[in-house]
Amino acid sequence: MKQSTQFHGGVRGANSPKQSSQFDGRFGRMFRSLPAAEFADEDLAKLAAEDAMLSKPEMTDSGKPTAAPEEEIDGEENFDIPAGYTYLGQFIDHDITFDPMSSMDKLNDPEALTDFRTPRLDLDSLYGRGPDDQPYMYDTSDKTRAAKFLLGRPLTRGGVPSTARDLPRLNDRAVIGDKRNDENVIVSQLHGAMLRFHNRLVDLMPPSASFEAVQQQVRWHYQYVVINDFLQKICGRDMVKAVLPHFLARQSIFEHPDQLHFFHHRNEAFMPIEFSAAAYRFGHAMVRPIYRLNTVLNDGGPALGEDAALQGRHLIFAGVAARALNGFKSFPAEWGIDWKLFFGETDKLHQGKARVQPSYKIDSSLVNPLGFLPEFSDTVPPPDRITKDNLQAKAKPGTLPNLALRNLRRGNMMGLPSGQDVARAMGLTPLKPAQILIGKAAMDGDELEARTITQVAPNLAFNTPLWTYILAESNAQWLDAVKKANLKGDAANLIGTRLGPVGGRIVAETLIGLILADSHSFLRQHPRWVPWASASGVKDDADYTMPKLLDAAGAF
Fold it and tell me: N or C: which terminus of the chain carries fewer CB neighbours within 10 A?
């Protein structure tokens, strides 16, 4: 069962293809005629500051890290989107983009950049270069079937046996197709579930099925989930229907063709810089400061000096590594994830540690730990206790650990157009300054937690960075819904958020456009195909979602 390393998209890092400022090249522009917006760094710094786009840390009066108890409504939670979709979005991003060559220190030309990922949803981040070229990732002991992935050590849930598995590791580092899928404990276990999904399909398909045939079916299930589940959660059903009208209606794609108004290419698909450097960074706003991995972990009480509200939960990043989900290393075996806490129907009335954790709202606010990215910060080893002095990691000299400011500067260096210009190019009326809210889509009592951009960075009121504008769109939609329903307090906070017309269109057109442009995708080879792999075996299911894929993998 040989697999060519050139199969479906070529070798990662191969010679970059022909570039064109118009229609080809792995990076390019969706809105080529729009001028680059220019921003002063001091204005971007105002946007990215703590208590603007970066939230303040949550601490008790005595200086202990805390969070809203699971039995209470957290005004920042988004009950429309479970927390697992944050990390599915990260997994998708790592599948389609990898740019190690751009610089934060100089102006970048998108057409001169190389995406070392194929701009397709083809899971090259999972498969690498295949079993022939990277045999150390695969189990080829059964010569009667296609190669399976090697899996890591079994994981428990707080010491209780579970179905969870770690990634295969060598000297603590994950041996996988893309090291970025070990950036945090959650995405690493999601990658591990995808390894198991491939292995499950090897078992379900006939023994004569080649590695390439299994790989194709894994890709098609994944592509289907991106359209049928992920995009509907993030952009809304109406946006998916507007871009790909045949899909939700289960009709012919030829009688109801796609409606890509802005993502156009001639020969090969490219990665729009408006997507990669702005719109798709919406997921940063969805990150929670804390997560419960399973219901029995640390059930005996709070750990390392933290407040009781964090009992059994972990900070996404923290100055004390033992209490954070930082990646790129082995983590305790009892940290096995329970995906039922990350995917499924969120219940606004059901609270407690067994609930499906919501993501945070898509708004113009990032949780405070994202101001201290581990890659650019120092942490203290265990068993140091969490205090108000080490809750936040300390920035390494000469680095920029604030994710909000990194995003804003990168967009500036890439020469992105302003949000207002993109809205006008889409035939939309731009948001007014009073509608561009900076901060949380939440109420503190009867008071709105966000401020207008005029109050935060007045020079950007009519010329707003595209990333900020897209997040503020979601904030504006939330506030419109709250006002229309005349809601206050917790009732207002229960209203969820999705991307708005600018952000939603860019994200939906890009991901759907990449699938349509791929001659190996299910939309091109079998547009009426539906997923069939389930926990019980083979069962066609047009309403296939990520929980069903995880269940089929034996991970749910």
Answer: N
Alpha carbons 323 and 319: distance in angstroms, whole number: 8
d(CA 396, CA 419): 32
- Say how many Å lie between the first and final Cα of the chain, rounded: 30
CA distance 391 to 406: 21
Amino acid identity, position 328:
F
Contact 217, 200 (CB under 8 A): no
pTM given for the model: 0.91
Look up residue 396 and give its two tokens.
């390494």
CA–CA separation, 26 and 19 (whole Å)? 8
How far is the C-alpha of 474 from the C-alpha of 471, rounded, in Å? 5
β pairing state of 271-272 and 173-174: unpaired
Distance CA 198, CA 3 (A): 15
Residue 389, exposed/middle/buried by CB under 10 A (0-12, 13-18, 19+)?
Answer: exposed
Report d(CA 62, CA 58) in Å as an integer. Answer: 12
Residues 27-78: tens digit of each pLDDT: 899 999 999 999 999 999 999 999 999 999 888 787 777 888 888 889 999 9
The CA distance from 390 to 407, in Å, is 25
Beta bridge partners of 451: 438
Q: List Cα–Cα distances, 148 to 335, 343, 533, in angstroms.
A: 25, 26, 16
